Amino acid sequence: MPWSGFAGRVLDLHITTTAAVVLFAAAAVAGLFVLAARRNRRWLLLGPATASVVTVAVVVLAAVVVEVVWRPFPDPLPKIVYAWSGAAVLALALLIGRFVVRRRDRWRPLVVTGLVLAAVLVCICAAGGINAQFDAYPTVRAALGISDYRTVPFDAALAPQPEPDGGAPNPGSWSPPADLPTTGAVTEADVPGAVSGFSARAARIYLPPAYFATPRPDLPVLVLLAGQPGSTEDWLVGGKLTRTMDAYASGNRGLAPVVVLADGTGGQFANPLCVDSHLGNAATYLAVDVPDWVRSHLQVNPDPRAWAVGGLSYGGTCALQLAVTRPDVYPTFLDLSGQAEPTLGDRETTIRDVFGGDAEAFARNNPADLLAKNRYPDSAGAFVVGRDDTDYRSGLEQLAAAATAAGMDVHITEVPGAHDFSVWSAGLEKEVPWLCHRLGLDPS
User: Fold this and answer.
1) What span, in angstroms and rounded, lies between the C-alpha atoms of 258 and 421?
2) 50 burial class (0-12, 13-18, 19+ CB within 10 angstroms)?
3) Whose CA is closest to 210, among 301, 97, 307?
4) Which of 295, 312, 296 is nearest to 304 (CA)?
5) pTM (predicted TM-score)
6) How does pLDDT run across 52-74, given as a tens digit for each residue?
7) I want to staple 342 with a disulfide (CB 3.0 to 4.6 A). Which of 43, 164, 273, 399 is the partner?
8) For residues 379 and 335, what is the distance between their CA atoms, to the nearest angstrom?
9) Nearest CA to 431 among 302, 260, 312, 303?
10) CA–CA separation, 422 vs 405, rounded Å?
């Protein structure tokens, strides 16, 4: 749905900037003050103090459940996430407390409405503060789930075209038609785990402008993976994929890679470590099922030299794993802020819970071990890290050195930021020219 004028400007407001975070904090403080302030001695003595104790207890319990018991993430959550969560819990505790201490407020609609709105405001600000930490939804539009890119249905029109005499045109000699679209488009399709049996969520696929020409050239492929937790939509929202690819295509006759946003985990919080195990055959899915499906359902260059795999955080780790375990499928990779090794939090837990205590099985899937053991003279890759990413930088630098020693042609790109989408979107933008050169899509 197109938006313009004032509504469009509101939707395009950035909500992850420092100014936005300051505004969220100020509004949250104001909302908490409204909820806490009251001319009632009993409330002032018991209300805010009790609500604070309840908040601390709830946040500490949640931290224990998330970090120790459930462990849905391989790394601890930043403390600021718990701080913002605590603000939301405190608002709800104060709201409930206002009605417990003086039930008469229930019959004053104006007071009730004001208190509820104050609590909602604090919760929205808390969500905004957490979102700003990761830069996952950079604008109001993104936060509301309103796309700013063109979409097309996945149908027969996207299937491989009958090859003209002499085969599909080479991108280097291909000339764009006059009616070539100015932007690419995104479609969605189920990519089944025909060989792996892996249960994957639907893939999103970016098709560059050149894909909508007749005849269309055989284009290279980038399989791009999200983090954990994450979804196949993440690169479209926080990762700004369409903006980056459309910008490159606009200066290159509409040519850019077909980008397949495949599901590398099977669920928002699932963590199969990009290996074949009892958690799911994620490695076979990404190295066999996805390429087979893409080659049979889309018109792309089938040559592995025109294929790359990349990802952010968990997805970056997975990309490097695939590059070292299946260099015949993915001789080119992008590792954006990947971990030093596949992990569920620590090596002992990982080997026990995923590999059944078999350390050698872990080593067969660990990039550092494989780079020390094997040579990869035909592989190339890019490592991207945030300037302030103190948790991932050292491991990534060690992997880059190991990759170089193993014969890979690799480089490290540093961009401003920490471990968030501002790094991953900027990193992808910086690496697209190198990637397209590597895959045979040099600008004319």
Assistant:
1) 21
2) middle
3) 301
4) 295
5) 0.91
6) 999 999 999 999 999 988 888 87
7) 273
8) 13
9) 312
10) 30
Distance CA 271, CA 282 (A): 10
CA dist 424 and 336 (Å) reads 6
Q: For the chain, give every residue range classified as CATH 3.40.50.1820.
A: 152-438
C-alpha to C-alpha distance for 94 and 91, rounded to whole angstroms = 5
Question: Can you tell me whether residue 413 is helix, strand or coil?
Answer: strand
Task: Answer yes or no: are the C-beta atoms of 280 and 199 closer than 8 Å.
Answer: yes
Distance CA(123)–CA(139), nearest Å, equals: 18
Q: Which fold has domain 152-438?
A: Rossmann fold (3.40.50)
247 vs 371: CA distance, rounded Å: 35
The values of phi and psi at residue 39, to 5°, are -85, 70
**In the numeric block, which tokens belong to residue 127?**
């969500």
232 vs 438: CA distance, rounded Å: 25
Residue with tokens 């938006």, as numbered in its chain: 3
Side chain identity, residue 177:
P
Name the residue with higher pLDDT: 292 or 157. 292
**Per-residue model confidence as pLDDT tens digits over 211-232:** 999 889 999 999 999 999 999 9
Q: 85-88: long-range contacts at Cβ-Cβ below 8 A with a sequence spacing of 24 or more?
A: 85/59, 85/126, 85/130, 86/55, 86/56, 86/59, 87/28, 87/32, 87/122, 87/125, 87/126, 87/129, 88/122, 88/123, 88/126, 88/127
